[in-house]
Amino acid sequence: MDTRKKNSQFIKETAQMLGFDFCGIAKSAFLEEEAPKLESWLDNNYQGKMAYMANHFDKRLDPGKLVDNAQSVISLIYNYYPPKKLPEGKQNIKIAKYAYGKDYHFVIKDKLKRFLQILQEEIGEINGRAFVDSAPVMERQWAQKAGLGWTGKNSLLLNQHMGSFFFLAELIIDLPLHYDAPIAKDYCGNCTRCLDACPTDAILQANLVDASKCISYLTIELKEEIPEEFKGKMENWAFGCDICQDVCPWNRFSRPHQEPEFLPPTELESLDWEEMTKETFDRVFKKSALKRSKWEGLRRNIKFIRVNQS
C-alpha cells in the first residue's frame, strides 16, 4: 500500500474512532462550478440579512486561501438524530432536532482538534485547520466531492445510509492523500416532497433555496421583526425547522445518535416556553445552540406564532 492510501486509511479509522459516521477525502481545488451559482444566489439576495454570506467570496471557493498549500479536504459526518422527539406539550412549541442538546460547535470542534493532533502525532508535521460551520467553507459541496452524498432539492446533503440529520465538518490539510470519487447521481429522482411541504415556499426549485423565506432563517438569523407575510405559516417552529427533512423519504434510514452531549436536558421536556424567564433560559440553554437567538429572539418567535396562528 502506498503512503497516500495508508494515510487515508488511517484518517478514516481515526474518524470512526472519534465517533464520526462517515469520512471522505477530496483533492483541494478551486470550486469553479460553484462560483457562478454562489454569485447568482447572492445577487438575488437569497441570503436575506445574512450579510456575512457575501464576505470572503474567494475563500468560500478556494481552500488554499484558508490553509497555505492546501492539498486535501477531509469531510466528516456526525449524526444528531435524537432517540426520541421532544414532546410539544400543550403549548405545541417546536425546536429543530439539532438544537436538543449541547451546541454542536463545542462538541465537534473538540473532536476535530483531537483529530488533527492524532494525525500530527502519527503522520508527522501537518499544517491544517478544522471547520464546523464556522468559516467560509462550502461544506456540502466538499462532502459531495468526497463521496459522502448528493445535494437534495432542499439543498441539504443526503446520504444513502442515514438521510440528512447530521452535521458536516472538515479538516483542510496540506497533505496529499488518496481521494474518494464523488457521487454523481441524484438519488432524489422525481420526488418533490420537500418543495411541497415547505409552508413558506422557501425552496424555489431543486437545489435553490431563498434563505430569507426559510423558517430557520426567520427564527434564528433574522434579528428584526418577522415580516407579516409569514403570518400563519410558521407551524409552531420557534427555533429552526425540520419540515423538509421530516418529509424526506431518505430519512427513513435515520438512526438514533450515540452522543450523550446531544441529549436534551431533563428540564427541556416540560419547559413552559411562554412563561420562561431570562434566568431560566440562561440556565437551561447555557451551552445550547438556542443561545444564538437569545432569550429576546425566542420570545419574539413565540409571540409571532401565537398572535398569527391561522
Question: How do the strands and helices of this protein lay out in sequence?
Answer:
Layout: H1 3-17, E1 22-27, H2 34-43, H3 57-61, E2 72-79, E3 94-95, H4 104-122, E4 128-131, H5 139-145, E5 150-151, E6 157-158, E7 166-173, H6 193-197, E8 203-205, E9 208-209, H7 215-221, E10 237-239, H8 243-246, H9 278-284, H10 294-307
Distance between the termini: 63 Å
What letter string, H or E per element, gives the SSE order? Answer: HEHHEEHEHEEEHEEHEHHH
Q: What's the structural domain tally?
A: 2
- Report the biggest beta sheet as strand number plus sense, adding barrel if it closes: 4 strands, antiparallel
Features:
globular; alpha+beta; epoxyqueuosine reductase activity; 2 domains; 30% helix; 310 residues; 10 strands; two-stranded parallel ribbon; 4-stranded antiparallel sheet; 10 helices
In short:
InterPro entries: 4Fe4S_Fe-S-bd, 4Fe4S_Fe_S_CS, QueG, QueG_DUF1730. By secondary structure, this protein is α+β, with helices and mostly antiparallel strands. The protein has ten helices and ten strands.
